[in-house]
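Q: Make up one entry.
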Amino acid sequence: MAERILSLRELNRATLARQMLLERETMPVPAAIERLVGMQSQALSAPFIGLWTRLKDFKREDLATLIDNHTVVKATLMRGTLHLFTAADYLRFRTTIQTALDNIGNSITRSRDATFDLEKILTAAREFISEQPRTFAEISAMLTALEPDIDIGSMRYTVRTQIPLVQVPINSGWSYPGNPTFTLAETWLGQPMAKENRLEELVLRYLAGFGPASVKDAETWSYIPRLKDTFEKLRPELVVYRDEKKRELFDVPGMPLPDGDAPAPVRFLPEFDNLLLSHDKRTRVLADEHRPKVWARGNLRLAATILVDGFVSGIWKVEKKKRAATLTIQLFTALSKQERAALSEEGERLVRFVESGAETFEVRFAD
């Protein structure tokens, strides 16, 4: 039987449905984070805003409490970047993700032409961090004193990718400071990492959260290479589709496939949201012509974006001057009066969430 071909809009709506962006959902915060298979968290406010835009009646303390009681952790995971994970998922998948972290760490070391005794570096770092939580400035100073002739960037990144570490939270703001300390994950969580490689389970979780998706999509999301064999093992229990360019797409049976014309309300996404980072072909949510505007400074920073009719249609930022908070929207395309009104209404709710201590709130369009 011929595989069903999914249009671009059908892919868009399917992905938005998995990502809780077609309608805000009611579920416990840990369940939402696990459904998203973690949340990218370089920007301190990003996971809070990401949950606010996906869950009904979400409040900042709903996540802050879970971080404080060790139910949720912040650590280096997918693509070697900071992610917020539930402790349960972190313990479950950290060993599986090590393959990607190995590749990332090795590439940094090769690019800097650095050679060093790996075990010596890791043993010294582990002992140093076990004494008390450390900033990476402190870790770097210790490593430089230990090996003054070796590239510090290579040693620092090796520690970050080889030793399971979590950030230590604080009890204010967005739960983590700008200059955080790190501690050993097993000490923080009081449990060892699962030793099993759960790659097949991780792929299934990815498809449930981001599918339908190709092998290359999953590799882009995880940085784990050569996933074709894993998909072939799973093929008997997966549904297979094609996109309009005949690329093979895999999915978990029973997942939602809304009509391409299903209503998609305006949504505000935070910086670095995984919706824009987890597919090889990102046109299901972001047109190629708009990518330079979202990655305006290269690939080092992904702007906060807005979705209109399910697709990225602009970027936004919040600024606070004295007691006045302003959310500014920069549109990529012309919108209807109704769409601009919807953005204004949603934007005012967001600016009040982000800068709750302000006295006045405004939403403005840069155009």
Q: What stands out?
A: The CA atoms of residues 128 and 139 lie 8 Å apart. Residues 286-365 form a domain with the GMP Synthetase; Chain A, domain 3 fold (CATH 3.30.300).
